[in-house]
Amino acid sequence: MTVRNRRWLGSLVVSAALLAAGCASEKAATKDLGAEIDEIAAALIQQPLLHSTSIGVVYRGEEFVRHRGDMETGKPGPPTDATRYEIGSLSKTLAGTLMANAVLEHKVSLDDDVRQYLQGNYPNLQYKGEPIRIRHLLSHTSGLPNMLPERANTVLEDFTDHRTPSELNTLYAHYGKADFFKDLHAVEIDRAPGKDYAYSSAGTELTAHILETVYNSDYESLLRGFFGDSAPMMGLRIRLSDSEASRLAVGYHSDNPIPTTPMPQLPWGASGNVKATVPEMVKYLRFQLANGPVVKESHRPLVTFDSEFSIGYFWNIVSGDRLKGVYHAHHGGVPRSQCYIYIVPKYDLGIFIITNQSGDQTARAMEAAIDTLVEKIAAREALAGNDVSR
């Protein structure tokens, strides 16, 4: 689930503190990178409402993990490597990776009509004879609404309203797969699939159903099995046991000073319910940077919208950035945390950053921190004599 349906890929307003931390110079580039990441984390939590942050970085094979701040106001206690975070819509990139693997294993074709994986008749999942295909789910061009039930989209229109978390909890308290399919029958597709970008978590949930169908296994088992073997990320979870839930990060919604509840459980959880620690996400960065066949397929553009923006298997693909070159990224947001992942091949660089606060300025503050870090990496590369002009 995203905080807003927008392309967050543009000019950034960088706070004075982060800009000061990010001024690249030869002197700065000679500092220990771990110390610089720590400084960036410290500057980030000086932003209004931000309580704490964790950052994981893989740069040319070297790993860095930094935690800063206190998880709860007035209670000393920073996040740790054991803290389990809700990674929100970063979950979609995991689902995209599983679908890329299914394509390579010839379990599915990108041009399959999604209705062949559904029981019953869905004449509504097409527009003038053009059906919704798997590629349309992956590229957010299916025409499906952001969320099902439709009422959730109305709730999310005013995301920062203090009532939003409780209203979402009520909507999804007893909302299961059967309810999803009932609502899917009522969806109206008002434009040709494959052309217009319209972010859809419902499309990701349907992707998880297709994966369950072709592999004859529940989605969480597929998720944990694939990434446990390939990354290896042994700690990924969608649903938590009582003992695991005790390590789930506390978080804050908007400017509410009282900690809020976790993201409610969605029917499959593929669009926004994955939980992971920062060390687990560092393993994911390594997996992405290794660029094996499945990753390479998942990073392949499925739809190009303009010269700077395209979509792979749920990955945003951005080009034209002076420092970053072509990179893959995704934002994640739930009512009590926001995060980003960046894969920047130009520097053999992966970044994961997360905060335990979710408001209308949280994403912008994290984007500024990421830009600061990339500036420092670019300065480091220039000193090393690497070509950073590409």
Give an overview of the whole structure.
With 390 residues, the chain is α+β, with helices and mostly antiparallel strands. The protein has one domain: DD-peptidase/beta-lactamase superfamily (Beta-lactamase, 3-Layer(aba) Sandwich), CATH 3.40.710. Helices cover 36% and strands 16% of the residues. The chain contains 14 helices and 14 strands. The chain has helices spanning 16-22, 26-29, 33-44, 91-104, 134-138, 151-156, 164-172, 177-186, 201-215, 219-230, 242-245, 278-290, 293-298, 362-383; strands spanning 52-59, 62-69, 85-86, 126-127, 130-131, 252-253, 275-276, 303-304, 309-311, 316-321, 325-334, 337-344, 349-355, 357-358. The strands form four sheets. Strands 2-1-13-12-11-10-9-8 form an eight-stranded antiparallel β-sheet, with helices on both faces. Helix 1 (16-22) runs antiparallel to helix 3 (33-44), helix 1 (16-22) packs parallel to helix 14 (362-383) and helix 3 packs antiparallel against helix 14 (362-383). It is globular, with a radius of gyration of 20 Å. The two termini are 33 Å apart.
